Amino acid sequence: MHDAFAARAILRQLPVRIESAVAYGDRLLLGTATGALLVYQVADAARDRPPAVTLVETKRAFARRAVEQLGVIKEAGVLVCLADGLVTLYDLHTLSSATPLANTKGAHVMALHTGVDHTDGIPTLSSKLAVYAKRRVVVLEWRDSEFYKSFEHPAADRIVAMHFAAPGLLVLATAREFLTLQLPRGQWDDLFPADSASLRTVVGAMPPAAHGPDAAHSPPPAAAPASSAGSWGSWALGLAGSAPDAKTTIARMPAEKLLLCHKDIGVFVNSAAKLCRTDHAEPILFSRAPLGITYTSSYVVAISSSAAPNGSAAAATAAATAAAAAAAPFNVEIRNIGTQALVQTLCLAEEEPTHVFNASGGKQVWAIGPHTVWRLVPAPIQQQVEDVLGAAQYDEAISLVAQSDNILESEKEELTAKIRWLRARWLFRDQARYEDALAEFSDLGAPPTEVIALCPERIAGELAEPPSDAESAAGDQDPPSLETDPDAKDGPDTKDDAADTKEGAADTKEGAVGPGTPAPERRKQPAQQDADRAAWKDALYAVMRYLTEQRRWLQQALGDGRRELEYTVRLLDAESDTDNDRAAHQRGEEEEEDGDDDGSLPRVRLKRLAFSLERMAVPVAAMARVVDTTLLRVYLECSPGLLGPLLRVKNYCDVEQSEGLLLEYRRYTELVDLYHGKGLYRNALQQLQIQGRAVDTGPLRGTYATVRYLTRLPEDQFELVLEYVRWPLEAAAPRQRQQRQQPPSSARSESGSDSDEDWPAPETVVSMVFADDRPAAEAFPRVRVVQFLRQYSPELVIQYLAYVFGTWHDEAGVLHDEMVAAYLDLVGDAAPGARQKLQQFLRASRTYSPERLLARLPDDSLFEERALALGRLGRHGHALGLLVFSVGSISLAEQYCVENVAQCPGVFVRLLKILVAPPPPDVVDNEIGAIRADDGPGLADAAGLERARAKLHRQWVGNLLSAHPQRIPVAEALPLLPEDMAFSHDILTYLRSQLCALDQDLRTGNVVRNLGTAEDLQARRQLAQQQSRFVVVTETRTCPRCLKRIGSGTAFAVIPAEAKGAGPTVVHYSCFQRSRSAETPAPALEAGHGGGDDDDGSSSDTPTDSPTAGRWDMLTDTVTISAVALAVAGTAFAAAPAPAPTHFVRDLGSEHHPDGRTVTVTTTIHKSGAAANSVSLAAAALAGAIGFASYISVSLPFAARLARGLGPDLNKEAITIPRVTIALAIVAGCAAYALSAV
Of 846, 924, 915, which is closest to residue 877 (Cα–Cα)? Predict the structure, then answer.
């Protein structure tokens, strides 16, 4: 609680009893029990003097009896007086001209209201007076200072209190219930019963337990009713009514609200008489039943008797009653309107107050006793907020600032944000309500650094800050330490990240205390230590969730390319304690006391809010670095298993700080992940090497961790890979030799490891680092890798190159040469199976260099490999000589010939030459071993060796000829055979095979020749058949589609005959195209179009018409064209009596008709040598005349009749009316020709 008001007695020991009072402006009116009216002038209080009053006037005969109630209608200049059961109106300025209201006789309750009325749709200043008298409610109304009207409404029950909720709504109270009366309609509505149980029920919640500053003075809540909210049991209590001495009160509150109070319970309703469930979710509980209630902008002021509490408070438990009795006596109770918490209690010692009211819109509060008048002077708003903040009552401070009318509206938001800021810090440090505090910081837009700074130093690092002076003064003790024992960081086993470390990092040996904790703190009991550890973990998990959410937002901002984010940053005011500020602070307090009516409000300056909140742009990268580093610290304390997921992805942890923390907690695996994420690959490999050589066991013991990390490096770190792969290769070689020489058990004991997987073999290292399907391994320079591996073992080179050839299919010659060199090294080391693998590779490879191989081969050995290299160079004779004489194996020579016969078909002939020819002198002795193996060891002289060699070779010659007859031509083999060579069965088999092959080739040639002749004849027959197909186009040939002549140079199409024996049909190409578009779509044309123009110049471009649409529209044009064509035809007929000339047909291609026939597209070129004469000209003129006459006399009527009678047939045959007209014109032209011939 804090001191919101100071009670100052203005008038003491008056000789008369005060029954009523009212104040307006600087006047205070007191109504006495003798009917007198005392008028005082009030001087406002100052800082150095109390408020003073001066008696201005005394109206002794103001009323005949005691003045029960006074009211002022300032807008109408009326003083309302209720005395002797009658309401009388007086002039406010002269206090004379009494006007008694006869219809208010018997009144005992009245209510006044002034406001803007919208009843008639026009905003009007309306003042209303409501009086209850003799079971009716009388309402008088003034509009714009003039009396307007009065009306009455009957009441069913006796009214004990009433007040206006709005200009058209009156809230009333009886002894049993609360009612509403709608004006001027007079409609009565029930609100709820006027009893304590009902007031608890209608609000929808049971009375809350005392909390905050209200806890020391509020009794515990009464027992809840047996029935649930809204049940008939609760309403039955209301229907039963209250005790006869219970007082029901209705009081005006700020923001157009009313407080309906019965005994010690009150509820708030708005201007529509609806419960204020949003702003006041719980009923307000007074310590005692109020005798009178008034308000200021922030507080409810209630007066009561200082005797023992009654009502629901008297029904409390005995313990609560004893506690209340032990408390200091009071008769004024002040509560916050918003929070309903008890703010202050005052004891007016002179006598018990009987009335309380306010003036000047709640800025003045007066308390009236029988012979004493008090003024409740509010404390400066700065002092009140300071006191509330000093008591850590931040909710009260927020409510006070929001409701105060002594603070500028523009300043309220800033003060509220600052108080919420302090409240969030207080919740985090003093109340252990971490989630609420972090939610408050997030709502304020605070940067994560503000939250981090509240954590202990082991979490916040250099951002940690001690509690401020305001926070230290707010609490009675220091905030609980969240430090853990530093020795606990070595407890977790580094092998288990998820289980052991969660307990080991948080549990402590001494409890949740640090080195700086006071001695009493270190001697906590085990239960207290467990509670501290639980609080420590709760704080860590709350901060972890908060930082994770902040990290997500920062990552999203970075992903969107944003460089800065705006936060609300707290800036300390460095000059807040200067003398100037303190003087300004004092001046502000004085101005607040003296400036109630001048309309100016001073700026609030609070020592505890000596900081400012500003929106500032903060670099996203810098904030992300702080958040990630702090999150790493939190993970180390409570969830080490989450370190890996944080460090293995992209993060912004500070490398220097994180490195020290991870080393301190022995989190070497996570340290390697940190180095890798920051691109510090060398640091990671150094750490792996140090831990791999460590004596104690751990997850990084041995070389396997190093090898596995090398597989994570990108391709541009090849030099680093070569540098640090040496250690795994060098460490594996002696261990392999040691394990081969010793039993497995002794080898494991000496190595210091329980598993050989920690020390992989060199082959495993190569397969993981180099011979792997990773893109980085594939991009490594392979020649460099081979050169590096050659330093350790040729087997490693062969292993790597085998993977390169088999998986990546690299056919580089230099790599194949390296493979050959590695195999030669193995052969030199007498490795088993090395020569066979080398020979297999030489046979399979096509890109190695045989010259380099010959240079590396020794002169006295490896003849088979030399022969393979010579064969690659094409020196097959030399190679076969080596195999026959130096190696002494004719079977190898034969195999060589089989392998190379595709490249060199005469290789078998070369072998045959070598076998039948005498050997060179320098290789005779080399065959001694082979010959003796066949003919016996007794042959030692040269003649014997020669005979044995000749015998052996001649046997192989026969075998060679019989085994490969198709590969040795007989024309080349027979001249090579010696004359004295016996005709053996092998030679007979060879000759028989050769003869059969020659006969087969002869027969095959005959068959191929006959097939070619038959194919040639068939082609000639098809050509003649195609050349025999033709059509004749004369000058008289017309298109059956359009009935026009197919003229010279006109493109046309030939349609094959539909029936057997019929000729092909020749049509214009344009007509053919139109028929295709009118019918079902056919396949695309394969042949082209004609290159000339039609006779009439329009047939190829005429659009396709339907059989019915537009037929008569084209009739006139068609007949006119027909007449012109008739004249031309008559001229031609008359001028050319001889047979038609020869026409030349040019084939343009073929197309596919929709019915499946093939259409030939051609064009004609013809010439006419006849000349025109006078008879022809006359015939032409006559033909034109007859054609025009036929159009007039015959075409139209006949065409009309023909269309009516033969319409379906015409449509079916695709014959149109214009075509019929043209036919008639042609008949007339023929007649003209006959006449001209005569």
Answer: 915
